Amino acid sequence: MNSLWLLTKKNLQLLLRSRSSALIVIFAPLLLILIIGLSYNTSAQYDLYIGVHAPSFSEDVNSFIGLLDEEFTISKYESSVESCVEDMKRGIVHTCISLPETLNVQDNSQKEITFYIDQSKINLVWMIQETVKSKFDLQSKQISQDLSQNLLSKLSETKKTINEKKGDLTLIKDKNNAASTAASDAKISLLTINTNTTEIVYDTSLVNTVSSSIETVKDNIANALININALNLSSTNKTNITTPLYDANSTINSAISSLNGNGTSISSLINTIELDMQVLKNQISNISSSLATSTSNIDSSSTNLAESITSIDSLLESLNALSTTLDSLQVTDAAIIANPLTTKIETVREDNTFLNYLFPTLLILVVMFSSLLLGTTLVMMEKNSPAFIRNFFLPIKKSTFVLSIYLTNVILILIQVVILLAISLFFLKEVLTTLPIIAIILFISASVFTFLGMVVGYLFTSEETGVLASVSLGSLMLILSGTILPLEVVSSPLRWLTLFNPFVISEKLIRDVFFFNASISVIFLDLLLLFFYMVALFCIILIIETLLHKHLAKKFLKHRHKLHIQKDKMKKSVVGK
Amino acid sequence: MVTNNHQKFINIKEFYLSVDLIKLKGVTKEYRGHAVLQDVNLKIESGDLFGIVGQSGSGKTTLLNLVAGFLSPSKGEVVYVSKVTQKERNLKKDLHKIKKYIGFTPQHNSFYHKLTVLENLKHFGKLYNVKPSTLKDNIKNLLIFTHLVDYRHMLAEELSGGMQKRLDLSCSLVHRPKILILDEPTADVDPILQKEILFLLKEVNKQGITIIIASHHLEGIESICNKIAIIHQGKVHSQGLIDDVKKPFLKDHFTINMPSNKDKSMLIEKLKKLSIKKILDNDDNLVIYPDNVESAIGNLLNIIKEENLLLHDMDIRKPSLREIFENIAKK
Predict the structure, then answer these.
(1) A13 part of contact set with chain B, CB < 8 Å
(2) Interface contacts (A, B; CB < 8 Å)
(3) CA of A443, closest CA in chain B: separation in Å?
(4) Could you state, in order of their start, the residue ranges of all structural domains in chain B?
(5) Are A285 and A423 within one domain?
(6) Where are the alpha helices (DSSP H) in A233-265?
(7) Run of H or E residues at B76
(8) Cα within 13 Å of Cα(B278), Cβ side
(9) A560 vs B108: CB contact, 8 Å cut-off?
(10) CATH code for the domain of A94
(11) Quick one: CA torsion of A5, A8, A9, A13, rounded to 10 degrees?
(12) For domain B251-330, which CATH number applies: 3.30.750.24, 3.30.70.1510, 3.90.320.10, 3.40.225.10?
């Protein structure tokens, strides 16, 4: 134990007396956190320069630029977007935005806004994308709200029109019903009209019979006349007798003529009547046909009217449904339609400076780099110390040397952490409450990183390469921690591996304790994992020390011996001359 | 300068009395199939100031690291033997128990530059579980011993090169080790500092601490070590007390310088009667190749005394470690 303290004391003395080491290893991280503390103890937005190009800076475009101007520094590029892109390449602006002539959406074509981002500035890309995009989202929401409002107005008007036109449709339906009834009545009336016609046959034989009788009478008269004439009767008598006969004959002839004569004869009359009757019959037939057609038409009309009524009913029903649907629209506020989900971020802590969010990362960052560098530097100091060979002859176990380096480191890191937490208290008052657990975590983390640094120190020959390797190792752990780049962009297996990254574990532990006041029981598993790392690394160092110590000592001696031989040769050559 | 406080440091000498014996038994060390060290057998005893010398890349640092337990042998074993119990402990198996008795100073300073002198010493002393009161005494004595008292509150990186070396040494001694292992302690330092470091090591060794040094600073090793091992091409060429190591490399000749040509001619005449292989007259000196160097020197001195000849100087020195080393390297 005494040896351990003696070696530790010696290490501390050596480190503190070596000004450059003391400055770089001890004070640099503290200075770093002080600067970061002062720099990030603000909630101000990012100081981003944005170049905006638009074919014409219309009112709405300018209004949008005004929105951006609230948080960013805006440069307008009227000529072309290329000049903006060129400026971005030269670092004058961080991003370029190409806007359309107007942001008003008047037809079904979308308005395209183009972002030009320099992907090589990987740390800025996400920030720019996120911050600028939020502004566009806001503008887009505003436009969307206007459009929704317009749509809602149209819908409201439609609903009103539907309600108005529903009465008209009912009226039309009633009229249709009346027409349908009238048609039915007309059809019934039409159906009552008998248009049946019997076959009208005039028996002209009677005329022939009469004619024949008259002919007979005529013949009889002729016979009578002959007979009369044959009779010796006075002429007067005869005349008296024959004259009526002749008159009768004449009448009979006239009657016969009337019966059988052309034109005005009874036969003709009968024929005429027959013809007229036929015409009439034909007309009645036509009427019947027309009636049938009309009835059919009325039927058709009735059917159409019925269909029309059904359609009107359906239409009314649809309009009612539409009206009901429109009535059922619960969300009628355009703002809600345009932005149905509002995101409200409830911070788990009330802090609002960047330092609060960065504090766990910064703390572990400083502890990690300090421990790694100190571990490496102290091992290198011991390895490259002129007293390295003398230490071989000391009756001290190798583990004592390892522990002394570790203890030296822990003491220095603890001093750093105390200063660091003291500085932190200046910015973050609440650190005090979680101090004991944070101290435990920092102690174990510092141990892990110290041992890692020591492993590096043992594996590398020169201090320069060792320190470089330590810095590289620290940087690797930092890169694979999600601090610089989101871990989501790395491949799954690698992401899984990062869960075992001591930096990630330590940071998470500090975060849990600092932000959520997690108790030891909550963080126990992670803490155990770190502790396991610590023990495992210590064992590895002991193995390395056992394997390498003699080798290093031999190398050390060989190197010194070689130098001596070289000097000897040089001396001889000088004497020779 | 060191004496008074040095004395205090010596007062704890008894602590180091039961110094162990280190044995390397057939140690081979291979790197990727290439043998850096082959079948090394060494014995380092308590109180030794043992130098391991060799060319750059010869394997001396590897050998040192094997002794320190920093490296394990591919073959063979390194054992630490307790003089008291005579129990052998395999370094590889009992490294954790043994290493607290070892102080190791690598080639380059091995302390924390951003700590002060005092903080460094306290840090390492405490980590070795030295009792506070003892540690306090140790640090005090070490600071005086290494002349760092006035700089104890200075950052190590602000010290001069020499001070840093002394601090490094203090860090290795702060827990009172039984064995101090040093890898090239005088490399990259100026000659004055080299001398200072060597002096300190000698003083430390005097207190009973076994010291093992790997270095190619041969003069330094030769000046302070009592034993050496010469490593050549991964093998121990020779080892033991320095004189013993030098024996095979003793010169077969010696040189005399006489101001008078008359005396010189007389001496040549006299020497010709002795068992001398060859005499080279180089005008300013004579190089004499006898059958036996030691007896020839004795005879020579007798002739000079008897004939009353005037001898300016005589070079009868043994070969230096460097000469031996270069000799081996040439082979």
Answers:
(1) yes
(2) 90
(3) 28
(4) 3-248, 251-330
(5) no
(6) 235-260
(7) strand B75-81
(8) 6
(9) yes
(10) 3.40.190
(11) 180
(12) 3.30.70.1510
Q: Is B73 on the interface with A (CB under 8 A)?
A: no
The total domain count for chain A is 3
Q: Is A467 in contact with A373 (CB distance < 8 Å)?
A: yes
Write out the two tokens for A472: 């590289």
Verify whether the Cβ–Cβ distance B108 to A385 is below 8 Å.
no
Measured distance CA(A561)–CA(B108) in Å, rounded: 9
- Closest residue of B to A398, CA-based? B96
> Model-level pTM greater than 0.95?
no
Q: Residue A337 domain-assigned? A: no
B-chain CB neighbours of A553 within 8 Å are: 70
In A, which residues are within 8 Å of B181 by CB distance? none
Among residues A290, A311, A329, which one ends one of the domains? Answer: A290
Question: Is A570 contained in some domain?
Answer: yes
Distance from CA of A40 to the nearest CA of B (A): 39
* Residues of chain A found within 8 Å of residue B100, distances taken between Cβ atoms: 395
Instruction: Measure CB to CB from residue A386 to each of B57, B104, B110 and give the nearest one.
Output: B110
> Smallest Cα–Cα separation from A546: which of A348, A363, A401, A426?
A401
* Ramachandran angles phi, psi of A453, nearest 5°: -60, -40
**Tens-digit pLDDT string for chain B (331 aa):** 333 444 444 334 433 434 457 888 888 988 777 888 888 888 888 888 999 988 777 888 888 888 888 888 888 888 888 777 777 788 878 887 787 888 888 878 888 888 999 999 999 888 888 888 888 988 988 888 888 889 989 998 888 888 888 898 889 888 888 889 988 888 777 788 888 888 888 888 888 888 999 888 888 888 888 888 888 888 888 888 887 887 777 677 788 888 888 888 888 888 888 888 888 887 778 888 888 877 888 888 888 888 888 888 887 766 777 777 777 776 6
Residues of A in contact with B114 (CB under 8 A): 13-14, 17-18
CATH of domain B3-248: 3.40.50.300
Q: Among candidates B21, B28, B37, which has minimal Cα distance to B76?
A: B28
C-beta separation of A513 from A434 below 8 A: yes
Q: Is B110 on the interface with A (CB under 8 A)?
A: yes
State the nearest Cα–Cα gap between A18 and chain B, in angstroms.
7
- Which residue intervals of A77-121 are DSSP H helices? 81-89
What chain A residue is nearest to B171 in terms of C-alpha separation? A390
Q: Which two tokens stand for residue A193?
A: 């009209």
Q: Which of A11, A12, A390, A569 to mutate to test the interface with B (most CBs of B within 10 A)?
A: A390
